[in-house]
């Protein structure tokens, strides 16, 4: 009887402990909705990749190595947490986050230079312009506060006899505390041009332990 009473008294303490996140991650409670796959709690971390996280495949691999997925802040509270963490060389807040423009929309931009905030079809900023890896984060906050998409494009020609090669910034980032797009292939855009921003960190997300 005494042992049963002791177990009863300890149960509330066992189940009242907040879920924990792995080292380098911060715990957040969320309002579960259909847009975030009814996620009640989530761990976010800003991981230093030591190299060029502007390369989207490399940024993804950094998160995977931490048993996480490339992610993003879902609300103002999470955004303020993420933007307080310095990026490369402790001088700029430059982070890769989830969100890459769909190939279909990239093709539309190449042909027509759409302004996607006004596009009413599948490439509307709030509808299908971006594809996301993280199914547990609602991207609405990021899309509502983005600086426009894409933010910039570029082009080069090897010589006068070759075709003009165009490319646009299609990956979402947090640059200096602002949400915008950058080139997905990182700092070294190609052998002729390396204007892309220096991004050494990536926002990763995962469930609590």
TrEMBL record:
Signal peptide: 1-16
PANTHER family according to UniProt: C-TYPE LECTIN DOMAIN-CONTAINING PROTEIN-RELATED-RELATED, C-TYPE LECTIN-RELATED
Name of the molecule in the record: Uncharacterized protein
The entry's keywords: Signal
């Amino acid at each position: 009887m005494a042992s049963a009473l002791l177990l009863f008294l300890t149960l509330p303490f066992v189940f009242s402990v907040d879920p924990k996140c792995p080292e380098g991650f911060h715990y957040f409670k969320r309002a579960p909705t259909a847009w975030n796959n009814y996620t009640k709690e989530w761990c976010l971390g800003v991981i230093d990749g030591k190299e060029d996280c502007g390369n989207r495949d490399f940024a993804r691999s950094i998160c995977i190595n931490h048993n996480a997925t490339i992610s993003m802040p879902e609300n103002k509270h999470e955004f303020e947490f993420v933007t307080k963490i310095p990026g490369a060389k402790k001088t700029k807040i430059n982070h890769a986050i989830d969100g890459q423009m769909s190939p279909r929309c990239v093709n539309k931009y190449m042909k027509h230079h759409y302004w996607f905030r006004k596009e009413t079809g599948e490439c509307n900023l709030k509808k299908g312009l971006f594809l996301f890896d993280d199914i547990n984060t609602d991207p609405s906050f990021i899309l509502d506060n983005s600086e426009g998409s894409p933010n910039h494009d570029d082009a080069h020609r090897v010589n006068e006899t070759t075709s003009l090669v165009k490319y646009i910034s299609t990956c979402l980032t947090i640059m200096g505390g602002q949400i915008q797009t950058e080139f997905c292939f990182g700092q070294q855009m190609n052998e002729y041009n390396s204007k892309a921003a220096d991004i050494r960190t990536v926002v990763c997300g995962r469930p609590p332990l």
